[in-house]
Every structure is written in structure tokens, then in C-alpha cells.
Amino acid sequence: MDIKMTAADMGAFLDKAFEQVKGDFTIEDVAPNTLTVRLNVQDKHLRPGGTVSGPSMFALADVSAYLVTMAMIGPEALAVTTNCSIDFMRKPAAGIDLIAKVRLLKLGRQLSVSDVLIYSEGMEAPVARATLTYAIPPIKST
Amino acid sequence: MDIKMTAADMGAFLDKAFEQVKGDFTIEDVAPNTLTVRLNVQDKHLRPGGTVSGPSMFALADVSAYLVTMAMIGPEALAVTTNCSIDFMRKPAAGIDLIAKVRLLKLGRQLSVSDVLIYSEGMEAPVARATLTYAIPPIKST
Amino acid sequence: MDIKMTAADMGAFLDKAFEQVKGDFTIEDVAPNTLTVRLNVQDKHLRPGGTVSGPSMFALADVSAYLVTMAMIGPEALAVTTNCSIDFMRKPAAGIDLIAKVRLLKLGRQLSVSDVLIYSEGMEAPVARATLTYAIPPIKST
Amino acid sequence: MDIKMTAADMGAFLDKAFEQVKGDFTIEDVAPNTLTVRLNVQDKHLRPGGTVSGPSMFALADVSAYLVTMAMIGPEALAVTTNCSIDFMRKPAAGIDLIAKVRLLKLGRQLSVSDVLIYSEGMEAPVARATLTYAIPPIKST
Fold first, then answer.
1. A16, A123, B39, D30: which one has the fewest Cβ atoms less than 10 Å from its Cβ?
2. Which ipTM was obtained for this model?
3. Model confidence band, residue D139 (pLDDT cutoffs 50, 70, 90)
4. Model pTM greater than 0.90?
5. Tens digits of per-residue pLDDT, D24-76?
6. Ramachandran region of residue A74, left (φ > 0), alpha (ψ -120 to 50) or beta?
7. Rounded to an integer, what is the distance from CA D121 to the centroid of its chain?
8. How many DSSP H helices and E strands does chain B contain?
């Protein structure tokens, strides 16, 4: 299955569709069923001690799973998250960008399932992992 | 087991310890093993169409599970989230505050487990549910 | 919404549709969006020390979420589990039946979401909790 | 970190410690932080149509996460599952053994976190994925 959006397409789509998170994420790399997304860590993402907050890691996992689904079906679909399980395994390094690597494990007609590993940039051990399910709305026949 | 913090204690503790979310949450009610927390919905919490974002609902669930643990063990502990599973079941009503009702299901020496239901204020059907595990650091003997 | 199956209907349906688990489960009580199911604990459900195994608790949560969905939509649907998150919080009492109390939190056209608490019979604190999502196949128009 | 148990050690350990599942699982391969486990599919694992049941897949994920933790810390520890999230993505092929590939993502003093992909033998797309947390009891000093 071919990719229906490039990294540049996705960046433009994000900026337009989600104004509230403009500038937060950069699409680093895209290939069939896989994607790399950077969280450009800013003050609003931090907790005392400079570590990235849980909600910021959730947001990174969520946008990564969304984009890897969009990459395969195209930007027209109004997919919504139905479920996420996330494990926080290590404290992120202070003030360092986070890198999410996402794999699309299933793309069905109604659901997509993706697996995400999140790293502090340059570190080998992941700081978090997540699995997300997106519900894909039925395609209207025309 | 008695409560070790009042709603006012928790509000003051949140404001002091987590500057980045100052004003986001109000503790509505506290009783043994249960707590009600309001997300004071602001523009930064929204998505196009006025619905509250997934990361904002995650943040509400996370802070609620944290506070219900703190209520029982006191504010000195450095508990950290280790796991969350969250289900997004309905679209939140546009521009309406969210109310989280959290129950502490287990308080062990190493782990707490809490269950959260999130509602758009005034609605009967929950918009989301979550379960969170917090790791409680060992108490230093003196 | 009315119940479409009685406890007796469900028992008969289980015995017929799932021969491998015949006699394992008893439907104790049914009401709109809620159900109580007993695991008739037998040697095959145990681990050394007499405690009920994790897979047996998973099976109880799974069948409970399935039946509460069936209760509302009727037995004709071929619903399948798509996701489960389960927390094991306490060791079950040795050789005691388990009681699952399940609530249907959402019944959509495509998905149901249910929440389960599992108790050793007669104990106040739950031994496990689980949330399950079932995919409901599209109803064929006739 | 070196492996503290071989595949043969693990097989013998399973047979001795968990009589109820004797013969169900075969350790195919072990390396640091990774393990391959086979479910020897038998009639008791099946549902109508010949597909492997959800509880059997859960049991395979659970034993795999347990063994990959044991492989690294040795068989003396009484680790217990505290959490599992599992996604059922495709129907397993009828009557075919399942193969679980598990990775240990974190081995802390108190918790291990493992990620499991389950395949029908010989198929490319996974039928299920799971993440499991084990609590590791404190080591008694002597």
C-alpha cells in the first residue's frame, strides 16, 4: 500500500487542522506503515525539574498514531481516538526533544491500531510506549 | 483510612507544584478514596469545533488519579504515573467544563490503582473513562 | 433500553455457543446495562497455592462484557473483543468463586465499552478490574 | 546483561511450577531481553470455527512476559502480573499454533514492562499485541 501523504503534506495538514498545537510537532520521516515524529519541547511541555509531562507524551503518541493512519488512508477522514494504553517507563531527559516511532499494526475498515515508542533524542532506552486505536468513519459513497 | 489533605490543601499544592497547569483544575469534592475534579475548559484545551482535546482529558484523568492517591498518603510522596488506559467514548459538549469522578481501587505500598469517569458538566453519559497506576516511592525510614 | 435476553437465555446461549467453557459461568443477575456473572472455580482455573489464574480472570471479564452487550442487542450479533485492559490488584482467596460485576458504559453502532470489577465472593475489595471493547458487526439490512 | 535461564531451563521450570498448563507452551528461542514462545494449540484453546480463544491468547502473552522477566532475573522471583493491555487485531488461522515474540522494554527494581506480538505460525500480520507489567518482589537481603 502506498503512502498518500508526504511528511510535508502532514506538516501542512497539522498546522491547518490543529491550530492549538502549531509548531509542537515535526514529521521527521515517513514510510509505509511507519512514521517518526518529533516533539519540539517547549516550556509548556515541562514539569518541575525540566522533565516532559505525561500529557505531552500522550499528545505525541496520539498525533503519531493519527498521522500514520492518515498517511495510509489520506487526510480526508475524520478518524477519532477510541482507546489508548500508555506505559511511562523512564524519566525523559531534561529539556531534550522527544522522538516517537510509530508502526501501524492494523488498518481495517473501521479501526486502525498503532504502536508507539517514545525516546529522549539520542537515548537508546525508550521513555514510554503506547498503543492507540482510531475509529475510521465509514466512507460516503458518491 | 482518613483523608490527609482537604480540597483547599490540594488546590494550593497543585498551584505550587505544577505551575504549568495553574488555574486548569478545581477540586470540587473529596472523601475517603474518592474525589471530584473540574477541568476549567479554556481555549488551549479545545480542538476545532470546540470539543475538548484528548490530551486535555488525559491530563484531567492523570491529575485526578494523582490527587486521590495524595489525599490518602499525604503530599510528601513523589508518585509517578506508570500506566494509563483510557477510552474515549463520546464527543465532549463544546465549551463545557469537564468533571472527573475518581475512585481509588487499590492503595498498596508500591502501587495505587484508580478508576476515572469523565463527564461534560450536566450530562449523564460519560465522555471518557480511564484507569491509572501510580508508583509510590519507598518511604525512607528515619 | 430494554433487556433482550434473560439470565436463563444467556446461560442457554453460552452453553450452546461455547462448549469449551460449559459449566464455568453462571449468570447471577441482569438489569439494563449491568450484569453479575459467577466463575464456578474448578481445579483447571487454579495456580499453585489455590489462587485463581490470570487467564481465568481475563476469561471471566471477557464473557461478562460480551454478555452485557448481548443483553442489550440480542444474541444474533457476532461481536468480537478488540481491546482489553486489565489490572490485577489483589490475590484472589484460595478456592473461592469469583463474582464479576459489569457495567455497559457505551453501546454505539460499531463498538461497546464495558467496565468490570471482579471480587472473591464475600470480599469487599476487588481483586481485579478490566475494561473491554467489543466490535459489533454491521447489521445486514433485509 | 546476561540470560540467567536457557530455553530448556524455562521449559522445566514451567512444567514444575505450573502443572495446569503442562504441555501448552514451548520456548522456541531466547536471547537477552527477547523470547519466542509457542502455544501448542489443542482443542481446549479453541472456539467454534477452530479459532484460538481470547483467554488462550492472553495466557500466551502473560507467560511470555513472565518468562522474559525470569530470563533476566532468574527463576527465584515471585513476580506477579499487575497490568495487561491487549488488542485483538485479526482472527487466528484455524487450528494453527500461535507464536509469541516478546521484548523486555524495561526491567526496574520493582516493575518489568514487556511488549508481545502474537502470530498464527507462518503468517506475516500479527493476530494480537499485548503489553504486560510484572511487579517484582523486593529481594530479601541475607
1. A16
2. 0.94
3. low
4. yes
5. 999 999 999 999 999 999 999 998 888 999 999 999 999 999 999 999 998 87
6. left
7. 15
8. 2, 6
How far is Cα C63 from Cα C25, in angstroms, rounded to an integer?
9
The C-alpha atoms of residue A37 and residue A24 are separated, in whole angstroms, by: 10
Residue A68: name the closest of A49, A52, A81, A50 by CA. Answer: A81
As to burial, measured by CB atoms within 10 angstroms (0-12 exposed, 13-18 middle, 19+ buried), residue B125 is: exposed
Those chains having 3 or more beta-carbon pairs within 8 angstroms of chain A are: B, C, D
C-chain CB neighbours of D54 within 8 Å are 58-59, 62, 81, 84
The helix-helix angle for B7-17 and B54-73 (nearest 10°) equals: 120
The rounded distance, in Å, linking the Cα atoms of B79 and B136 is 5
Give the Cα separation of C41 and A122 in Å (integer).
51
Beta-carbon contacts below 8 Å between C and D? 71
Q: Roughly how many angstroms between the first and final C-alpha of chain D, as a whole number?
A: 23
Chain B: give the shortest CA distance to residue C106, in Å. 7
Residue D41 to residue D51: CA distance in whole angstroms: 10
Establish if A17 touches chain B: CB-CB under 8 angstroms: yes
Sheet strand arrangement including A80-88: A25-31, A34-39, A98-107, A111-120, A128-135, A80-88, B80-88, B128-135, B111-120, B98-107, B34-39, B25-31
What average pLDDT does this structure show over D11-24? 88
Q: Is C36 on the interface with B (CB under 8 A)?
A: no
Is residue C118 within a helix (H) or strand (E), and if so which, with residue range? strand C111-120
